[in-house]
Design the sequence.
């Protein structure tokens, strides 16, 4: 793994603990179960207002905050208890402890980086990717990652990368196998700003959008949808959410990936269960599916067409 350069100073966070294994996935509640704004309790309205205005969560999409408050609001009507519960949930959902480089340092380094030479660009991107736990895991397989992924699906013209985080910095490798227009989605404005600043200099036909894709009624359309090592996190946020998103994505093909090992270094024992969920969804919908495995990542492709 490429070591972090002086520009990308570690933030001094303690090593992240292993993520808890997500609960068994179930089908999500039907649309409309979460109370509408007009029916919200005073506690829910108060906590939404407080947390969306809080500096700590200024980069988290307001819809993400509101969705968590409304769902936690089913369990308590006490504003103080509700805020405590939602803050704990936001810590897990935002998962900023996984970003080991300071965003401000990343942005300054980006402004100074030599991105004109393709090899220098890739070398610098490897340094950036090393600054987030998820993309750092992929570094040993990065050269083989997109050839393997695109070997599972027909050539797309558009790619939607859901919960992309720092993955836009892998677009130089994507470009080696595809000219597809890349659009990333993330509820964290920090990643959106960094990704767009990089793409504006290197791949201006691509972009990152600050959106919350798990809320009811949100539509994402592309030839290929990517949920890279994020499905199990969505299931941890709301059981059934990842499966429902795969189902409703307006994409011809969806590739879902999982780490082969948990953050504690042990085998990712939750993966077989999630793969079976996806396979069952494909069978129920009359879709086909395929699979490929790299040393660090397991890829499942759902073929809707």
Sequence:
């Amino acid at each position: 793994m490429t070591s972090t350069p002086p520009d990308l100073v570690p933030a001094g966070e303690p090593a992240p603990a292993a993520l808890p294994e997500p609960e068994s996935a179930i089908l999500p509640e039907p649309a409309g179960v979460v109370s509408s704004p007009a029916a919200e309790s005073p506690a829910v309205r108060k906590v939404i207002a407080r947390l969306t205005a809080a500096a700590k969560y200024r980069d988290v999409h307001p819809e993400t905050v509101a969705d968590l408050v409304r769902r936690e609001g089913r369990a308590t009507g006490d504003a103080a208890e509700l805020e405590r519960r939602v803050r704990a949930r936001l810590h897990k959902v935002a998962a900023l402890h996984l970003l080991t480089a300071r965003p401000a340092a990343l942005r300054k380094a980006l402004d100074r980086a030599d991105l004109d030479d393709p090899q220098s660009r890739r070398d610098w991107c490897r340094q950036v990717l090393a600054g987030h736990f998820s993309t750092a895991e992929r570094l040993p397989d990065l050269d083989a990652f997109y050839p393997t992924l695109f070997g599972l699906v027909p050539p797309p013209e558009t790619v939607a990368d859901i919960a992309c985080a720092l993955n836009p910095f892998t677009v130089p490798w994507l470009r080696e196998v595809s000219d597809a227009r890349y659009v990333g989605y993330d509820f964290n404005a920090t990643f959106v700003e960094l990704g767009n600043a990089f793409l504006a200099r290197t791949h201006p036909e691509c972009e990152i959008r600050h959106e919350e894709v798990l809320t009811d009624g949100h539509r994402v359309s592309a030839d290929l949808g990517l949920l890279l090592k994020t499905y199990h996190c969505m299931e941890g946020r709301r059981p059934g959410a990842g499966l429902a998103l795969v189902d409703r994505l307006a994409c011809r093909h969806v590739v879902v990936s999982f780490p082969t090992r948990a953050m504690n270094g042990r085998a990712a024992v939750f993966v077989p269960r999630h793969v079976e969920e996806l396979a069952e969804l494909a069978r129920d919908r009359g879709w086909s599916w395929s699979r490929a495995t790299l040393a660090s990542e397991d890829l499942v492709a759902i073929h809707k067409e």
